[in-house]
Every structure is written in C-alpha cells, then in structure tokens.
Amino acid sequence: MQPATKLERRVVTAAEQALTRQRHVSPLDVLTAMGWIPPGLVTDWRQGRIPHLEAAAVVTSARLADALEVFHRWVAGQGLRPSEVDYLAATRDRRPLRFTADGGIALESAYRTHWTPADLPERQRERLTTRQSKPPDLVVVQPLRDFTCTGCGQTGADLLMMEDAGPICLTCADFDHLVFLPAGDAALTRRAKQTSRLSAVVVRFSRSRKRHERQGLLVEQAAVDQAEQQCLSDEEARARRRERDRQRRETADESFQQELAEEIGRLFPGCPPPRATAISRHTGTRGSGRVGRSAAGRALDPDAVTRAVVASVRHEDTGYDALLMAGVPREQARAQIREDIDRVLEQWRRPVTT
Question: In this predicted model, what pLDDT tens digit does every residue of 218-257 receive, in sequence order?
Fold first, then answer.
C-alpha cells in the first residue's frame, strides 16, 4: 500500500521498522512505536496491573481500531504469514491477557497475531512463536508504604505480590524461601535465574519516572552460590568481552551521529555544519531518551529529525529557557517563542548562497 494519510504513514513506518529490526511485527509493536501505548504501561499490563491494553492507550479505542485497520491493509500487501501468540500475565495464575475492553474474539485474535516474512525458514518461525509465547517473569513488588496481606491479614512493608484480591505477602505466595539478588551484575543475575527452579523479578515504583523499575531477582540460595562460582571462573574473559562491546558501541554511535548530521544538513541546508554536528551529538547520545534515540530517530525519519532540530533551536536560539526560569507555564512559553523558531527554521531550509 502507498501511505497517503498521516496515520497511514506513521503505521507503515512503525511496521516496516519493526519487521526489519526483529523479523516479525505485531499490532503492539506498531502502537508502542507510535507512542499510542506507553511502554511503561505495557509493562503494567503484562504484569496484570491493568485490566486490558485499551486502558493503557493515550488515544480512544476508535483510533486504535483505525490504526489496526491500516496495519492489516499493509500486511495484506506484504505477503506476510500470520502466527497467533499467547499473551500471558506475569501472575501466578498465568491468565491470558486481554487487549480490549469487551474481549471480542475476532479483535483479540487480531491483536495476538504476529506476522513474519513468507521466506522465513519454518524452524526460525517456530522459534520466534515459541519465544513470544513464553510465560513472562513473575513479579514481586517493593512497596512504598505498608500494606495489609489479603491472605493472612498481617501488615508489613516487605515484598508483596499483587493478585486480583489485593496484595499478598511472600509467605502466602510461597516465595518466602527465596533470597533477594540485587541488580547490577548481569552475568550473575542471568546465571542465577537459569539455575533457580523458581524466580521472580523484583520491581519498585519510581515516583519521579512514574513507572516500576527493576531492582533485582528473587531466586534460590543454591542458584546464587552456583552462579557466583561460575562468574569467578571466567571473570577475565567477560571483562575483555565488555571492553570489546564498549568499543563497538562507541563506533556505532559515532557512525549514527554522522549520518544524523548529514540528514540534518539535507533537510536544513542553511544550518551551519558545526551546529548540525552539535545537534546530532546531543540528540543521538545513547541512553539520553531524546528523539534521536527513538525508533524513528534511529531510522532518520524526517519528522523525528525535524523535532530534534526544533528542540535545539528552542533552547539555543530563543528566550524559552529564560521564560521557564521566570515561571511562565510551559505551553505559554512555547507559544511565545513559536515565531522565533519558525524564523530560524525558514532560514535554515534555504540553501546557503555564495
């Protein structure tokens, strides 16, 4: 299909990027890439804290249906093969997750279907489906305040699991024999989890970031002991591998930032090259969360590149920051400097004449 509307362009771009990146694509991949369903709320939904995915969306169910219709038209034109995937909650009962408020069979099935290229080998397709259908990790919460266990009625501030009736303590959940392994050592965590017959991810809600963040694992003590011995035996080799990985990431970042600077120069030929380089380095910094690190930014989507340039102009070429420091509300401050941004962008869109 040839995308015509803005919605079609956004859906097709998100779908193509997901398919290129991971060799399969689903409606959830597209909706999260578009920003219609925040990843943090997807995590809450997968962990059983949200009744259905529509409740996590920032748009109406009608808009979700429009995007799904566009996605299926695109799929039909690509010759992709469908595979339905089980979505299970990270709860002890492993109940199926719901996508919609009414739970209609046809729409639920549409959301659960993942699409892969027709030429993908069958064994690889089966591995993808198996991995995607794998039950998620069980989740234990570090509460911010005391809670009352709905099982035994005891009040405390220790770890809890959430069930439909409310929070339960680890004793009632039969998890009290496990030990806490803090996050921080990826190799130790991975090996302990592989060895432990029972495990759960420990999360804690961050008030500043408005999301649950991983704190570590609950695993069997014997699994921790075995993992520690394994890590001691190959620490030197893992250190060398970490250094190689660090160098490879730095090279990849430099290459991406150069491509981003070139794209800025193409869209805004009047932008001074040093400024284009500065913008690309700022917005393309790994782990910054800026637009250059988004899926659209990494794909050098023109809209994403333009947003990065606009952000730079807003802070560097207008009085926006001074307005914020003076207490002017954000939206009001943006309205006041909008003409200044447009003036700079109009100038940069014109090629430099010599």
Answer: 999 999 999 998 888 877 777 777 777 777 777 767 888 8
Q: Which two tokens stand for residue 234?
A: 């190959």
C-alpha–C-alpha distance, residues 148 and 151, integer Å? 9
DSSP string, 146-197: -EE-TTT--EESS-EEEETTEEEETTTTT-TT-EEEESS-HHHHHHHHHH-S
Per residue in 272-329, pLDDT (tens digit) is 999 999 999 888 776 666 766 677 777 888 888 999 999 999 999 999 999 988 888 8
**Apex 234 CA angle, 229 and 239, nearest 5:** 125
Whether the full predicted model's pTM is greater than 0.70, yes or no, is: no
42, 28 Cβ separation under 8 angstroms: yes
Residue 3 has a pLDDT of 57
The bridge status of strand 139-142 relative to strand 200-206 is parallel
Q: What is the DSSP letter of 210?
A: T
Q: Tell me the pLDDT band of 92, cut-offs 50, 70 and 90.
A: confident
Give which of 172, 92, 165 is closest to 135, Cα–Cα: 92
Distance CA 92, CA 130 (A): 20
Q: How far does the chain reach from its first CA to its final CA, in angstroms?
A: 43
**In degrees to the nearest 10, what's the CA dihedral of 99, 105, 106, 112?**
40
Query: What whole-number distance in Å separates Cα of residue 1 and Cα of residue 278?
Result: 37
Query: 261: which 2 tokens?
Result: 């600077």
Q: Which residue has the tokens 């010759």?
A: 79
Cα(305)–Cα(335) distance, rounded to whole angstroms?
Answer: 21
Pairing of strands 155-156, 147-148: antiparallel
Say which residues have a Cβ less than 8 Å from residue 112's Cβ, sequence separation at least 6. Answer: 84, 85, 86, 87, 99
| CB half-sphere exposure, 202, CA atoms < 13 A | 20
Q: Contact 160/140 with Cβ under 8 angstroms?
A: yes
Is the distance from CB of 89 to CB of 46 less than 8 angstroms? yes
Within 38-90, residue ranges assigned H as helices are 39-46, 61-78
